[in-house]
Amino acid sequence: MKTIFRKIGIVSAIAMCFLMAGCATHITGPAQKPTPAKIKFGEFKNVEMKSVGISEKFASFKANQKALRKIDEILFRDIKYPFPSLKRVKKGSDFSKTADRTLQITPFVKEIKFIGGAARFWVGPMAGSSAVLMQVTYRDSSTGQIIANPEFYRKAGAFEGGFGIPDNKRLKDIAQDVINYSLYNK
Q1: What domain count does the chain have?
Q2: 24, 141, 166: which is closest to 87 by C-alpha?
């Protein structure tokens, strides 16, 4: 009888190790904090921004697609504060070919693991942490020079709970990081 319980215990421990390893989030933050832009953004007459892009490796997951749409929505709504005359570049399109000097902004999600509310409710902490690593390229259209290329990182821990509320808040936070960086460098 002891042998059966011992085997069940060993099998349970192994299963738990696999379950925990499958839930781990391996996304890490940038090596350094964002550095100031080479040119103040206020020097540009025009500002254009593309839709938020995503690495192909992470694009196929439904939860990540939902998170990407949320980041894009928040970013375009709130980036009007530092750039009231911002022009949105349609998804799949290129920046305009104007002779005027333009600040071109390209936000790109390099890595993401998003845990939605349903997964958080049913699986809880076992679903793992949500995390997003986003890079935003600011380019001077007249020279083609990248004047800033900061990376931003946000993570919601697996045990923060709240039916996905912390996970969704990190999407708002990362969009706000981009806005704050833009304001700081204006």
Answers
A1: 1
A2: 141
